Amino acid sequence: MKKYVRIVLQICILYLFSLLGSFIVQILHIKFPGSIVGLLLLLGCLHLKIIPVNIIKDGAGFLLGLLALFFVPSTVGVINYPELLSLNGILLVFSVIISTLLTIILTGRICQYLENRKLGEEDANDRG
Amino acid sequence: MIAVSMIIGTVFIFILMTKLNARFSTPLLLPVLTATILIIILLKSFSLSYDSYMTGAKWIDAMLGPAVVSMAYPLYTQRTIIKQNLFSILTSVVVAMLSGLVSIIIFAKLLNLSNDYILSLLPKSITTPVAMQISGAIGGFPSLTAVFVIIAGLTGALLGPFIFKLCRIEKSVSRGISMGSASHGFGVSKLTEYGEKTLSMGSVSMTLSAIIGAFICPIFALFFQ
User: Fold this and answer.
1) Are residues A23 and A57 in the same domain?
2) How far away is chain A from the Cα of B56, in angstroms, using its nearest Cα?
3) What residue ranges are annotated as transmembrane (chain A) (predicted)?
4) Which stretches within A29-83 are classed as H helix?
5) ipTM of the shown complex
6) Amino acid A126: pLDDT
């Protein structure tokens, strides 16, 4: 029981950060997701030890564990876009697939190149 | 009354689909996917509109904000591994974001899509909750974005291992980063079979990609508003 109360209280803290983020975005009139501002604020507070990790740990773990549930309401919204089942919709789906594959290949190769170069430099330093 | 039953129904169906997925482990039975399809079928057969569904479901939707904020926690606990690989992680995540954006814009232009569709496509490589928030902020349709994000995720989860072999992407860091920044959570969940390091690189780059995407997507969006 005590554990659940703690989780609920911690979720309230996380909710406050999310609200604060949305509020900041609103008063600055910028096109930016408020929750990311909240994330950065929380990260800053954790890093500067303003907030100890323990007072959000269980709440964060709980929310992240259920993450997929939270976006079900939005994905159901696709009900309003029946045009996705047309030829153009299918081509669109293919575009997303190809774009994703290109991204994996390009990123994987470039990252591997960077890693190899880093290892090469470390070897050279060891020998030098 | 409808509102409460929508909340309970969604949670119940989601739990049921999670159980189903645990029995037959394949990305195609992903709970989000099966739960969404089942709920749409149910709404259609009772002729309920999306708006009446949302009277209750909006309370579940409201948890997205705090859930995104929660991502600060894994990022904080993994700060050592980020510091160790800072340069390759940041470069690769930015490369992934740009290549995803440029390629999808080219395809969208070839298909002659309208601007609101293009805006909904831009955040497709970013984890669903953040992608939807970015989509809403730049003037896209968040629901549509969620579908594209799921397709991008499934692509990585289903074809990623094959691509790794085909293109000889063998290092754990490069596997983790490319999957995390192109196919977010779905792709990352597939990385468990490559070991702990690949997995944590994947989840770190997924989160960083979400943060970097929140800055880059609105810039690209300026061309389509």
Assistant:
1) yes
2) 9
3) 7-30, 36-55, 62-81, 87-108
4) 34-47, 54-65, 67-70, 72-76
5) 0.90
6) 65
